[in-house]
Design a protein that fits this description.
It is a single chain. The chain has 41 helices and 36 strands. The chain is an alpha+beta fold. The protein has a nine-stranded mixed beta sheet with strand order 17-36-35-34-18-30-33-32-31, with helices on both faces. A nine-stranded antiparallel beta sheet has the order 20-19-29-28-27-26-25-24-23, with helices on both faces. A six-stranded antiparallel beta sheet has the order 4-3-5-14-6-12, with no helix packed on it. Helix 3 packs across helix 4, helix 7 runs antiparallel to helix 8 and helix 28 runs antiparallel to helix 34. The longest helix has about 40 residues. It is elongated, with a radius of gyration of 38 Å. The two termini are about 70 Å apart. The relative contact order is 0.09. Pfam families: Cation_ATPase, PhoLip_ATPase_C, PhoLip_ATPase_N.
């Protein structure tokens, strides 16, 4: 136990205990296929060197999950970088810069590209290096391997070979796929945890073949040798076919002897195993696939903007080239020179009037290089940096940290941050996601009498629906029970009833049946007790939370299971006659394990008095038909209680027993043992038939009811998400009644909501299933589903009809099968999208994934959330997968994009971080294109001003460093720190989230608006600068400005304008943003000073231009001030008018915050109500329930007044 307390592990001989569970699954497989294609592997156990001698090429056990190695990093990484069209374009431009066509030097063109590429490759390299470190840690773990003469030596995992015999000790992982030879248990069983493989935390039991059980010591392997022939490496975790040849005998191997790499040995001191698959041949590595590549909708749209800019770039380059060709041709007409100063009679091919077409083509190439600054070269790397930092803030958010489990929120990918702010539909699992998956024994029915006074979450919701009571009133109704519960809460036990607690059950009229009921719970299970040596308190290792709850309940009510031996179970129980607690020993004869097909579990035990009992618990659907006529005395009452428990959202099991006479048991035992030892193909069927024959003529004891509680904050979270306009679908494997009641408990359903139920439980379909053939059943079922869907669509009024009525769609698994067929699924989707909430019951994992895929057809962002291995398909199919790091293992988390500890954290993840990330990335990308359009258009205008000569207005290094130095950091700061409203206001005004769902901030209208602003700014900058410096003397000696001075002035204005535009766009200033914005401007002036001081051979036209020409000239500073002010005025005016007369929702909240009224609940309610359109009315959640109730009361009042 935690805290260093030592446990006494109880070692058992469990071959008898697991007689049914350990029957060799897959034993009916065709072993004749051994040696054929797909089944050709030969392993010489304890002779690993022999494989090389016989030319078997088996994988090493060293694994690598890295994307690159030293040889492939450079070529593969470069290939990845230049797959991006923008990077490839810059590469081509850089190569062309090496030719005389370039308008700038090759170095100035290639350096920024190299910086961006190296930075991105560095990021990739660091991520891959981390993976390599993880691989190194894994490959260098230590395990004991037989090295001859019975000596086992510590060996690194990577040095293990096929055929090695290894010894694995308790709580260690298996380093390869092994065949279990023996364990410290006499019958060769071991307990295995497969959480890393399938996400399940319950322990699996494996058992060695009887022929190898005697291999208990290290020296047993001195002369040991076998030959194993088996299937080739494959990805199937649950099947295995092989044979073992030893001492002239052949033994069949099954999955029961297979121990898989990355599973862990538990509750077993040690095992010996033979290595059959190593490294990438192991089943876990065969299953290792890259998760599906997910890209956000904004990122996909960004690619379209790049293509738009490149198309625009090509068009203006073509336009300039055509005009250049025409003007060049006109320079020399009939021997007359038009622009004589260009000396057209003595020019190179690039300006030759006689070859104007060729000159025009060369100009096109020059223009394509010159206008490349329309494309932001640092866009991709900047966005990646911003997203990584955003993910870091998500991970560090203390408000999404779950203290009880010590689990923070984890952004497993940063690619989808902004997608969190655009979620339209959430598809959620129920068990472990909305509920805790921590079962509590809360009620039971014994001999027709209901016991247990606890109140479930569903019952509270039902009371609100039926009686109109609020939650606080319900709590006060049961306050007496809470006051009586003085003892601390016991995990798994929430039962309150003075009639049978504290030993009071002995005074009940049905005390014998109560004794048999709890005795059955204490005996009929597969739990392993663990006793603390200090406190002597017993805890239990159970295969499921339900199983643990039953054993804990029996213990708390006086029937404590505390010890297990090879073939006995020990229980401390109270004698109803003497009222004394006694230790009783039950001889354990057989356990017939639970399976999904059997839906029940039985144990056969012998009492100290000699009676042989069969104790059975299972689902009501299979248990009631196994009752003897004399054992049905309380059947009707029990069924009624079961229905009530189901209505309360509880899970139920029926308990029954029978007394076996000696002869009957001997007959069964012989039949069962014969079936077990059968080698025929129908061995499993014979074993199940034997078990079926004894589980008859049962006497009913009663039923149990356990609650899987709603997680803390689930109803409130769903209410907030619903207010944000997010639709929530529940996809669960539970039956319809339970799912509906859970829906009411978490406010997905409410009183007055019209339920459209699609089901195949109609009498005619049931009758057809009994009598008709499969084809007729399928045809009739599909038609029934289509009819129900069409009827549902007709019930819902069209959008043109104003209606406050809300609808819920509830569909079961059978109906869902037909609803997802190609010719029906879009009608089903149409119906579902018109409903306020959707609940899919009895859904299989595949159906969950298919429903998710279908919802994506609506072109809205989908988010799937789940906690189990059965949710993996759904998580990977959705645009965003969120895994709950709960009690069902880590399979869902490993397949997810984001991991949270509780469903309630989804509220903050979406409404706060999602909204912020969407807004930041949207504004960031728009600003990126704005600043590059501004810069690019000034280049174009100057080139047009210079007759499309191909001469840039700016120095080479001015061009190169614009995106990399002078404008890069402010936009990164905006992407990381900006907030339109605080986290508290994001939660108080959930309607704000719709800005992302409707993509208001990254619509084409918005994007083109930013670009238009850039074009206007560029025109104003160019016009004012050329006008001011064109013919005006700006120095004392009357000199006019040259190209060098004009270029620096224009560049200065561009740097000022785009950085001031950033300052106007920021909503939430931090010291970092101030440093980056004003620091970028300061760095420009420092660069001018430093670069101008460099030798003129390098600085060229920038040599001393600032110190000698511009800085002393007052006109330079005045023009800069005037141009910046005049250029920013149009956008400032537009923003002021828009905020004053056409405010967006965040503008309204900001104004209320300025007035210090934003946090007033009444102001928030009124503002949200006015902002919400009729199509966004709340249909689900606590708020919707209250709104509906208020509307109902007001209508009744109106009727009374009219009456």
């Amino acid at each position: 136990m935690a805290g260093g307390r030592n446990r006494r592990k109880l070692k058992l001989k469990l071959s008898a205990l697991y007689t049914f569970a350990l029957c060799s699954k897959g034993s009916s497989e065709d072993y004749s296929r051994i040696g054929t294609t797909g089944f050709s592997r030969v392993v010489y156990v304890n002779e690993p060197a022999r494989h090389e001698e016989e030319h078997f090429r088996y994988q090493l056990n060293e694994v690598s999950t890295t994307k690159y190695n030293l040889a492939t990093f450079l070529p593969k990484s470069l290939f990845e970088q230049f797959r991006r069209v923008a990077n490839f374009y810059f590469l081509v431009s850089g190569i062309l810069a090496l030719t005389p066509l370039a308008p700038y030097t090759a170095v100035s063109a290639l350096v920024p590209l190299c910086i961006v590429i190296v930075a991105t490759m560095g990021k990739e390299g660091i991520e891959d290096w981390r993976r390599k470190q993880q691989d190194h840690e894994l490959n260098n773990r230590i395990v004991m391997v037989h090295r001859g003469n019975g000596n086992f030596e510590d060996t690194k995992w990577k040095d293990i070979k096929v055929g090695d015999v290894i010894k694995v000790e308790k709580d260690n992982f298996f380093p390869a796929d092994l065949i279990l030879l023996s364990s410290n248990y006499p019958d060769g069983i071991c307990y295995v945890e497969t959480m890393n493989l399938d996400g399940e935390t319950n322990l699996k039991i494996k058992q060695a073949l009887e022929a190898t059980l005697h291999l208990k010591e290290d020296n047993s392997f001195v002369n040991f040798g076998q030959t194993i022939k088996c299937e080739d490496p494959n990805a199937n975790l649950y099947s295995f076919i092989g044979t073992m040849e030893w001492k002239g005998q052949q033994y069949n191997l099954s999955p029961q002897q297979l121990l898989l790499r990355d599973s862990k040995l538990r509750n077993t001191d040690y095992i010996y195993g033979a290595v059959i698959f190593t490294g990438h041949d192991t089943k876990v590595m065969q299953n290792a696939t890259d998760p599906p590549s997910k890209r956000s909708k904004i990122e996909k749209k960004m690619d379209k903007i790049i293509y738009l800019l490149m198309s625009s770039l090509l068009m203006i380059a073509l336009l300039g080239s055509v005009l250049f060709g025409i003007w060049t041709k006109e320079d020399l007409m009939n021997g007359k020179m038009k622009r004589w100063y260009l000396r057209p009679d003595d020019s190179s091919v690039y300006y030759d009037p006689k070859r104007a077409t060729l000159a025009s083509f060369f100009h096109l190439l020059t223009a394509l290089m010159l206008y490349s600054y329309f494309i932001p070269i640092s866009l991709y790397i900047s966005i990646e940096m911003v997203k990584i930092l955003q993910a870091l803030f998500i991970n560090q958010d203390i408000e999404m940290y779950h203290e009880e489990s010590d689990k923070p929120t984890h952004a497993r990918t940063s690619n989808l941050n902004e997608e969190l702010g655009q979620v339209d539909t959430i598809l959620s699992d129920k068990t472990g996601t909305l509920t805790c998956n921590m079962m509590e024994f809360i009620k039971c029915s014994i001999a027709g009498t209901a016991y247990g006074q606890g109140v479930t979450e569903v019952e509270k919701a039902m009371a609100v629906r039926k009686g109109g009571l609020l939650g606080d009133e319900i709590e006060s109704t049961y306050s007496k029970d809470k006051k009586n519960a003085e003892s601390p809460h016991i995990k798994g036990f929430n039962f309150k009833d003075p009639h049978i607690m504290d030993g009071n059950w002995i005074h009940e009229p049905n005390r014998d049946m109560i004794r048999d009921f709890f005795r059955l719970l204490a005996i009929c299970h597969t739990c392993i007790p663990e006793e603390d040596e200090e406190t002597h308190k017993v805890s239990y290792e159970a295969e499921s939370p339900d199983e643990a709850a039953f054993v804990i309940a029996s213990r708390e009510l006086g029937f404590e299971f505390y010890h297990r031996t090879q073939s006995s179970i020990f229980v401390r129980e109270r004698d109803p006659v003497t009222n004394v607690v006694k230790d009783r020993k039950y001889e354990l004869l057989n356990v017939l394990e639970f399976s999904s097909s059997r839906k029940r579990m039985s144990v056969i035990v012998k009492e100290p008095e000699g009676r042989i009992l069969l104790l059975c618990k299972g689902a009501d659907s299979v248990m009631f038909k196994r009752l003897t006529p004399t054992g049905r005395k309380f059947e009707e009452e029990t069924k009624r209680h079961i229905n009530e428990y189901s209505d309360s959202g509880l899970r139920t099991l029926v308990l029954a027993y029978r007394v076996l006479d000696e002869n009957e048991y001997v007959k069964f035992s012989g039949k069962f043992n014969t079936a077990k030892t059968s080698v025929s193909a129908d061995r499993d069927e014979k074993v199940e038939e034997a078990a079926e024959s004894i589980e008859q003529d049962l006497l009913l004891l009663g039923a149990t009811a356990v609650e899987d509680k709603l997680q803390k904050g689930v109803p409130e979270c769903i209410d907030k998400l619903a207010q944000a306009g997010i639709k929530i679908w529940v996809l669960t494997g539970d039956k319809m009644e339970t799912a509906i009641n859970i829906g009411f408990a978490c406010s997905l359903l409410r009183q007055g909501m019209t339920q459209i139920i699609v089901t195949l439980e109609a009498l005619d379909i049931i009758a057809l299933e009994k009598n008709g053939d499969k084809q007729s059943i399928a045809k009739a079922s599909k038609q029934r589903v289509m009819d129900q869907i069409e009827d549902g669509i007709k019930q819902i009024p069209s959008p043109s009809q104003s209606s406050t009525e809300s609808f819920a769609l509830i569909i079961d698994g059978k109906s869902l099968t037909y609803a997802l067929e190609d010719d029906v699924k879009f009608k089903f989707l149409d119906l579902a999208l018109k409903c306020a909430s959707v609940i899919c019951c009895r859904s299989s994992p595949k159906q969950k994934a298919l429903v998710t895929r279908l919802v994506k057809h609506s072109n809205k962002v989908t988010l799937a959330i789940g906690d189990g291995a059965n949710d993996v398909g759904m998580l990977q199919e959705a645009d965003i997968g969120v895994g709950i790091s709960g009690v069902e293992g880590m399979q869902a988390v490993m397949a997810s994009d984001f991991a949270i500890a509780q469903f309630r954290f989804l509220e903050r993840l979406l409404l706060v971080h999602g909204h912020w990330c969407y807004r930041r990335i949207s504004v960031m990308i728009c600003y990126f294109f704005y600043k590059n359009v501004t810069f690019g258009v000034t280049i174009f205008l100057y080139e047009a001003f210079a007759s499309f000569s191909g001469k840039p207005a700016y120095d080479d290094w001015f061009l190169s460093l614009y995106n990399v130095i002078f404008t890069s950091l402010p936009v990164i700061a905006l992407g990381v720190f900006d907030q339109d409203v605080s986290a508290r206001l994001c939660l108080q005004y959930p309607g704000l989230y719709q800005e992302g769902v409707q993509n208001i901030l990254f619509s084409w209208h918005r994007i083109l608006g930013w670009m238009l602003n850039g074009v206007i700014n560029a025109i104003l900058i160019f016009f004012f600068c050329t006008t001011a410096f064109g013919l005006q003397a700006f120095r004392e000696n009357g000199q006019v400005a040259g190209l060098d001075a004009l270029g620096v002035l224009m560049y200065t204005c561009v740097v000022w304008v785009v950085n001031c535009q950033m300052a106007l766009s920021v909503n939430y200033f931090t010291i970092i943003q101030h440093i980056f914005i004003w620091g970028s401007i300061a760095v420009w002036y420092l660069f001018l000073l430093a670069y101008g001081a460099v030798d003129s051979r390098f600085s060229k036209t920038a040599y001393m231009v600032f110190i000698e020409q511009l800085a002393p000239a007052l006109s330079y500073w005045l023009v800069t001030l005037f141009v910046v002010t005049a250029t920013l005025t149009p956008h400032f005016s537009y923003a002021a008018i828009q905020i004053r007369f056409f405010p967006m929702f965040h503008n309204k909240i900001q104004w209320k915050r300025y007035l210090r009224m934003a946090e007033d609940p009444e102001v928030a309610r009124q503002l949200s109500s006015r902002h919400r359109t009729s199509s966004q009315q709340r249909m689900v959640g606590i708020s919707a329930r209250r709104d509906g109730k208020a509307m109902h009361i007001s209508k009744e009042t109106e009727l009374e007044v009219q009456g």
